[in-house]
Every structure is written in structure tokens, then in C-alpha cells.
Amino acid sequence: MDKGDLTLPAGGGFLNLRVGAIIIKNGKFLMVKNPHCGYCYSVGGRVRFGETLEQAVRRETEEETGVELEIDRLGFIHEAFFYGDGKENAGRLIQEFSFYFYMKTPEDFSPVCESLSNDGQEESLVWISPDEETTFYPEFFRKELKQPSKEIKHIVSDERINSDANEEMLLLLPSEEYVGEYTAYRREFLDLGDSMDGTGPLRRLSDPLDWLRETESYRDPSTVPEGKVQATQFIFVRRSDRKLVGMIQIRHCFNDYLEKYGGHIGYSVRPSERRKGYAELMLKQSLGFCRKIGIKRVLITCLNHNEASRRTILSCGGVYESTVYEPDEGEYLERYWIDLE
């Protein structure tokens, strides 16, 4: 993120002003792909302080395609509320105003992407058909770009959860800010002899800094520990007192064990904070991240005698599939699927 980008911290989240370029050729539109995430996004980026919208979209288009394109017309004004999934904004509510411009596309247009994403990953350009199953944002492109209109359309997308309690909770990537909370969280579970689902290696690592380093290694496919899968760890923090009340781990893919027993998501709530609805809020917030990384159906499992976990999964749209026996722990697990499409 450039220092001049119009991204402002607000209410525990961020306010963004963004522009996007709609570049269409042979019935397909140009999108940007980042290998670090499971979805594509529009050519464009944040407006810089002092720029007009048109100046911003021309600059972003040249930066990301290597070609100067002329603007045809403004196509969409998009208000979006969603939860971030980047290093700087993971789990934070983002309110974004985007202005999408149709660009004039020459017949000999041949883009070359040389830009980097906010997380330092090399981006690439891909042509996408509206009917492809690829996950991309904004989602309304799929419908609206099949037959482009001459009108300027105003579209609102809102991924927020309709709950007053949710406004008091933050789903965040772990950081050193909460080192003391990780230790206290771990101690409560050890004192009760309870399982630490969704906490990664927290049980075996007494030093919270060691836990931070290892959970960070799971996020990058090139550094995932042997025998494990790429996963993103989140913490669930109460805004009022900055207390850690829950943890949730999202696995980007399966190995044999996860496909049968573990599922995409593991989570836990601090014993002293249970029966307050935090598990449901945490799980609902995390589903937005699952959708962003391209997971279309989320598998979640729970012990067949864990009524609280079963209710949480059902409240988030889980549909029971089957019960399986896990031989290592000698327990029966119920399998549920949540459809995100």
C-alpha cells in the first residue's frame, strides 16, 4: 500500500476509495490474479491523495497492463462492506467505495503485468468469461458484463453479519500485540484438560512467539511444515477490553485426514467466555474469508456428543452429511457442509 493511497482507519476497520478498469475483448474481461489468494480481482487500485478518479484509473491501468488506455465511460459506483484478508487488514471490516470505468480497448491490445500486490506477490493478468466458475471480485461483473449497459449503475454489496454483538468483535491475524493473551488462553485450556481446536501448535508451544512464527509459516505454501496443509490462523478479540475470546484456523485445502475427519475449519472459544454466542459470530465472520480464497463448500466436523458445536454449525448453515469413526481418538465425528455459493 502506497503512503498516498486513500485508505483511512475508521472504527476498528478501514475506509477505502478505489477505482477499477473494465477492459473487455472478445467477450472476456481482464482480471488480476495473485498466487497468494484463491480469487481474481479487477484491474485497478486505490486512489491516491490529490488524484481525480479518471487520473487514478488511467494510472492503475498503465501500471498493471503496461499500456496506456483511454477511458470510455463510468460504468458502476460500488459500495462494498467486507472483511479483509490481507496482512494489514485481515478480519477487519472494510467499507469501500469503488468507481469502475469502461476502457477503450484497441484491437492490438496486448497487456503485460509487472505489478506487485500489497503482500509483495507478483500478479498476473487473466482473461475471464462471465460464465467461468473462477472466483472473482466484484461478483456483479458476472451478470452485468454479459450485456454491458450504457447507464451508470449503483451497486451495494454487504457481507456484514446483522448482529450488534458482532460490531464489538474483531477477527484478526495473530500479532505480537496479544502475546500475553495467547499465554492466558493456552493456560485456561491446559488447566481444564480441554482440547485446543483451531489453535494450530499452541498446545505444544509454551512460548507465544514460537507459536506466532509457526502459524505464520502455515500461511505460505512454500513454508508449510511437512505433512501439513496451507492454513490461515485467526484470533477473535473483544474490542472493549482487547481480550482474546476465541481462535479459528482455516485450512485452504485437504490432506487425507482433514478430508475425512478434520474439515476446513477448526475453532475454539476460551472456557471463561463460552455460552455468549462468540462461536457463531467467529464462524460466520470466517466464512467470508473462506469464500475469498475460493472454497465453495466448507466442511466442518464436531464430536457427536458436542451439542453446542452442533448448534453453532447448524446456525451458520451447516447441513449434516454423515458420522464417521476417528480411530486415533476413539470418537465419532459428525460431518457438516456449508455451501458458500
**CATH arch. level architecture of the largest domain:** 3-Layer(aba) Sandwich
Q: Which fold name is given in CATH as the topology of the largest domain?
A: Aminopeptidase
Radius of gyration using CA atoms only: 22 Å
Output mean pLDDT. Answer: 89
N-to-C SSE series? Answer: EEEEEHEEEEHEEHHEEHEHEHEE
- The general outline is elongated
Structure description:
The protein is an alpha+beta fold and 341 residues long. The chain has 2 domains: 7-158, Nucleoside Triphosphate Pyrophosphohydrolase (Alpha-Beta Complex), CATH 3.90.79; 165-339, 3-Layer(aba) Sandwich (Aminopeptidase). 22% of the residues lie in helices and 34% in strands. It has helices at 53-65, 141-144, 179-192, 208-219, 256-262, 278-292, 307-315, and strands at 7-10, 13-22, 24-25, 28-33, 40-46, 71-83, 93-103, 124-128, 136-137, 153-158, 169-172, 231-238, 243-251, 265-269, 297-303, 319-326, 331-339. Strands 1, 2, 3, 4, 5, 6, 7, 8, 9 and 10 form a 10-stranded mixed beta sheet that branches. A 4-stranded antiparallel beta sheet has the order 11-12-13-14, sandwiched between helices. The protein has a 3-stranded antiparallel beta sheet with strand order 15-17-16, with helices on both faces. It is elongated and about 65 Å long.
